[in-house]
Amino acid sequence: MLNYRDGLADMPLYDTREQDWNIKVNANESNIGLPPLVEDRVMTRLSRIAFPRYPNEEYDLLCEQIGEAYGYRRENVIIGNGSSEIIEKVFHAFGGNQEHRIVYPSPSFSMYAIYAAAADATGVPVPLRPDYQLDVEAFVQQVNQSQASLAVICNPNNPTGQILTVEEVEYIASHISCALLVDEAYAEFCEHSVIALLKKYPHMMVARTFSKAYALASCRVGYMLAHEDVIDMLAKTYMPYHMNVPSLVVADTVFQMRTEFEPQIQMICAERERMQEQYQALTGLTVYPSHANFLLIHYAQAEALNEDLIRYGIGVRSFGKAPGLENMLRISIGRADQNDEVHRIIKAFVEGHS
Ligand SMILES: *Cc1c(COP(=O)(O)O)cnc(C)c1O
């Protein structure tokens, strides 16, 4: 018998296997891709990489770019292999034993519970209200009662799409003293970010990603802004040269050219509103208002509907028996023709089963 660490055998494995979908709207990736101008620049940059060398100034340059864009310094920025790595490291840094409690809403990003367990911490889920709004008071109370070491908010929330106002996040930040991580993976699709609050609340961190709005899921790049003392501590949890140069230079190019993405982000938001109306018009479906690049839909026969979609080569995200997400499907917003096709198949199924 191999002697693995305690608890490892019981850890779930995040299943990333994929079918060859005709339409893939299950992981909130971009279905549009890089704007041609950006792609050209990316290819030029890639052709100039010093492949035999460990990363050198590329990491600091991207930190500097990102910091500057939000009115901070490069000392306030950390970059990770996707915001996933950053979130995992934050959980690691504030975990360590069962007395370290990590509080997050539920349902939310499913990895929070897994990262809490992996960090040997105690995960404390706070249930959302039936309309999926977070009761901020109850959240604050739970954080304080648990004497938590870390509170986590996903804003806008995945997979429910709902959002907290800046005032609500500030209410949380000002009523707790432990670390507060705000996961803004979908912030580009909504009206506001809480990054400006960092100046006032040095116990706050904001994580962002290139994987969703910036169509760069392949490169695995995310970043986090926080007080430099927090960044210094977190930096100790990473291995040296943890980011690879190809991903760094691609992310750097994308970040410099980020205004090129505005038309597609606007298109996705407009499509989201259009599709919300279309789905809402179908009998038996409940669509939750979303501030991200996906819609969450409740349908009594969600499993059967999902099977039907799979038959047509359409991949949506089904949550199976996950608590608070029974009979829910999450559908990423793609191009208009893809959205219409997904809707057409759902409409035919629903009308054939009513
Ligand atoms: C997609 C996602 C992330 C992480 O994405 P990366 O590709 O690792 O940057 C983090 N949080 C939420 C809520 C997400 O949906």
What are the main properties of this structure?
354 residues, alpha/beta, Aspartate Aminotransferase, domain 1, Aspartate Aminotransferase, domain 2, seven-stranded mixed β-sheet, four-stranded antiparallel β-sheet, 11 helices, binds pyridoxal-5'-phosphate
What topology emerges from the helices and strands here?
Elements (H helix, E strand, L loop, with lengths): L22 E2 L11 H11 L11 H12 L7 E5 H13 L6 E6 L4 H8 L3 E6 L8 H10 L4 E5 L11 H10 L3 E5 L20 E6 L11 E6 L1 H8 L9 H12 L5 H19 L4 E4 L5 E6 L2 H10 L2 E2 L1 E2 L9 E5 L3 H17 L2
Parallel strand pairs: 1-11, 3-4, 3-5, 5-6, 6-7
Antiparallel strand pairs: 2-8, 7-8, 9-10, 10-13, 12-13
Helix pairs in contact: 1-8, 2-8, 3-4, 5-6, 9-11
The structure holds pyridoxal-5'-phosphate.
EC number: 2.6.1.9
Catalytic activity: L-histidinol phosphate + 2-oxoglutarate = 3-(imidazol-4-yl)-2-oxopropyl phosphate + L-glutamate
Family: Belongs to the class-II pyridoxal-phosphate-dependent aminotransferase family. Histidinol-phosphate aminotransferase subfamily.
